[in-house]
Each structure stands twice: as structure tokens, then as C-alpha cells.
Amino acid sequence: MAIADWPEHERPRERLIKFGAQQLSDAELLAVFLRVGVAGKSAVDLGREMVQRFGSLNGLFSARLDEFSELNGLGPAKYAQLQAVMELARRALGEELQQGAALSSPKAVKEYLRLWLGTRPYECFAVLFLDVKNRLISSEELFRGTLTHTSVYPREVVKAALACNAASVLLAHNHPSGSPEPSGADIQLTKALKDALALVDVRVLDHLVVGVGTTYSFAEHGQI
Length: 224
Prior knowledge:
This protein has about 220 residues and is an alpha+beta fold. The chain has nine helices and five strands, in the order αααααααββαβαββ. The protein has a five-stranded mixed β-sheet with strand order 2-1-3-4-5, with helices on both faces. α6 runs antiparallel to α7. The radius of gyration is 20 Å and the shape is elongated. The mean pLDDT is about 90.
């Protein structure tokens, strides 16, 4: 049965408007995004199948176009729309960080990084450059690697910080394989970057490791 034939109080869009988006399940939110289903499946059915196919919302968001398109009813148009929604959410969080929320709202920083780095299939290293009031100046992906490894050069991080006239930085990288728990190499790199940036009077406020669905903060664990 098509959603249009459901009782009005059960339709996802109407429930979202009346009760708020937080009251909807993942499948129902995806149904609002999809608008229509396919032959034999409502949009909610298709949304549920999307979550099951990719294991989680994070899995769905990180899917490649060819993987996304394997489900009947999905293709380049829906893929582009989904990527646009995610980028809009990331930019909205970026605006919040530009207003000085980098330290006052750790949750916003983690969400920003999750949307930015959490869906990458390869490991990459990024830096958030902050001014003296901890407002975001810019965020840059400086290094990119394979599924499990990337090379980071402290000299390039220092150059980028000086170019932005940054007073402090937040370091970040992702672990596409899953766990955000830092490796010994991550810990050594953090120390090397902290020492290198200290020479030009730039503070390292935190190093965040983005895993699948969770983020590890060096600062929260007393490692900065």
C-alpha cells in the first residue's frame, strides 16, 4: 500500500510536521527523503531496506554510487540529493564553529568531523584552524592515504597554520576500518605535531579520531 493511502496520523511526513523529526525512525526519515517508493514497496519499506543493506546510517552515507544504485529505486539523482543533504548539515555545523563553538560545543565539533571524515573509505588527516577566540578560520584535508594508512608531515601542518594565521588547531583523522582507538603511531604523531606547532606559538587543543559511529578525543582522555 502506498503511503498516500495510509491513515494521515501514520504518514511519516505528517508525523514529522506534527511531532518533530526526532520522533521518526531511520526508515521513516529516509522515506521523507525518498518521497516515493517502488513497485511493491512503500518509501518506508525502501528506507528500511536501505538501512538493512548497508548495516547503518553511517554505512549508507559512506556507500559509493555503484553500491547505492544496487537497490531498486535508487540511482545517481537520489545519491546526489543525499550527498547534498549531508554537505548542508556539515556547513551548518561549520557556521556554528565559526561563531566560537569549537571549544564550547565539543559535540558540534564531533558531528562536523563525522559528517566530513566519517564517510571516507580511505584514511585522511585534516586540521581545523582556529583564531584567538577559538572560532573556525578554515578546515583543510591535508593528507590522504589508503584504507589503513596515511603519511603526515609536520612541516606542512606548520606551513598551513601560519598561512591561516591560526592561534590554535584541532587535529583530526579517520579510521575507516572501524574503531577510533588511537594507535601508537597516532600518539607519536600527536606529540610530534604539538612540538612542531609550539615552535610557532600555535596550540594543539585536541586530536580527534573518527571511527564508525564514534569519535575518540585525545583531550578528553588527558593525552593533550
